[in-house]
Structure formats: C-alpha cells, structure tokens
Amino acid sequence: xxxxxxxxxxxxxxxIAAVYTLFALSAGARAVFQIATKFSHAxxxxxxxxxxxxxxxxxxxxxxFPSAGSWRTAVVALCIEFVGVxxxxxxxxxxxxxxxxASVWSKFGVGYGFVPLVLPLIGLWWLWRPATRAxxxxxxxxxDSVA
Amino acid sequence: xxxxxxNAIAALAIFVFLMALSAWGLILAATRRRPDRTYLxxxxxxxxxxxxxxxxxLVVIAGxxxxxxIGEFFGYLLATVILLPYGIVRxxxxxxxxxxxxxxxxxxxxxxxxxxxxxxxx
Lengths: 147, 122
Hints:
The complex is a heterodimer.
Chain A: H1 12-38, H2 43-64, H3 68-94, H4 115-128, H5 130-136
Helix pairs in contact in A: 1-2, 1-4, 2-3, 3-4
Chain B: H1 4-30, H2 37-62, H3 70-92, H4 98-121
Helix pairs in contact in B: 1-2, 1-4, 2-3, 3-4
C-alpha cells in the first residue's frame, strides 16, 4: 500500500538518510564556524570540511526525495565521498603538515570513529539493492544503449 | 553561584543516561522492534534533562560567565536540545520501523558526544 504520488525511503534507508543529515549538519556547522573564525590557521582542512559537508548534504537531500535522478546523483556523491575520505586520509597521514587542524576526513575520519570511511560503502551497498532502486524508480538501462 | 564540579557531575550523569538510551535503541533495532512507548518516554526524560542543562547554561551566561569559544558553545548547546525531539517525532510516526529505533540510537549517541564536548567548552 505505497502511495505512488509521493515516494518515501523505507528500511535501512531511513537510518542512512538520518545519519547523512546528521553529518551534513555537524560537518557544515563546524566548517562554517572554522572558516569564519580561524580560516588562516588550517585553510586546506577547513575547505575540505566544507566540501565534505556539501557532499553529505547533497546525499541527504537525495535520500529524502527519491527519484531516478536523485538515485544517480547519490551514487556519484557517495563515490566522490569515498574517494575523498580515502584520498584526504592518505594525504593527512603522509603529509600531516598540510592539516594543522582536523577535517572530517583527515586520518580516514578517526575523529568521527571512522564512520566517514564506512558510511559511503554502506550507502552504496544500500543504493545498489534492487529494492532500493525500485523505491527510487530507477531502472537499469537496456543493454547496448548508448547514453 | 556557578559551580564547575556540580556542572561536570550533572553533564556526566546526562552523558551516561544518553549512552544507555543509545544502547537501548540499538537493542530494539537489532531485535527488529520499533520504538515503543516506554522507550520514547525515556528519550523524552533525556530531552527534559538537556533542556534543563541549556536553561542553566543560559542563566550562567546571562550572569556574566563567558566561555572562551562562545560561538562553538552555542552551536553545541543548540545541537543538544534539537536532536532528541527529531528522534521522538521519527519514533512516533505510524510508519516507524526498527530502523527508526536505530535512528534514535544514533541521535542519542551524537547528543551524548555533544554533551561531553559542551562540558569541555565551559
């Protein structure tokens, strides 16, 4: 008995969407505060925190308003997120001088209990499930189709 | 009037209560149960504690105390009072499932961390 006029996310997606919203708010508030008050102290870390916040917000919005377009946007956002947390994690370990203050993704998100590292993988696993795709109204393109 | 030791004890008590709520929510989620009335009532008690803490903080600040990083202080103070009502609304929804027990578990954990952070910012 699902209402066709307004889709909503069910199952694990309810929890994943809430966690992304929480991360968007906390990373966003922190980045705004740091950039406004002490930007010159660790500009790279703060800019990356802001980038992370924008990606979390984008994913949270996609999860809240399911559609074929938001499914694709969410997949791209989560891939960027995973590359970001691994890349920033590696750079922050190899060259700690670049990060005088912690960003959300530095040292693979250790300041957030490594949740930032696991979150995109859980999110992508969930997005890839056939039930989730159906809920978003996303279908696989026919074979041999040229996008 | 403002006693740092009493403040720390109160904050730690709230922290422990919130961690217990988080564990409770996790158990509900793991056993595939949606939030029940008892659990939501306990979360509401947690929210009352947090609102009282926020009122005390505002009174102390109005009385002249200035935390060194006041913007950050207010940010965390706001986070501690707005998150549990969101969880309660999710848990009371007729469509709530065991995943909403998980949402409340995550939210109470986040607020517990924020309470500790707030304590360090006094």
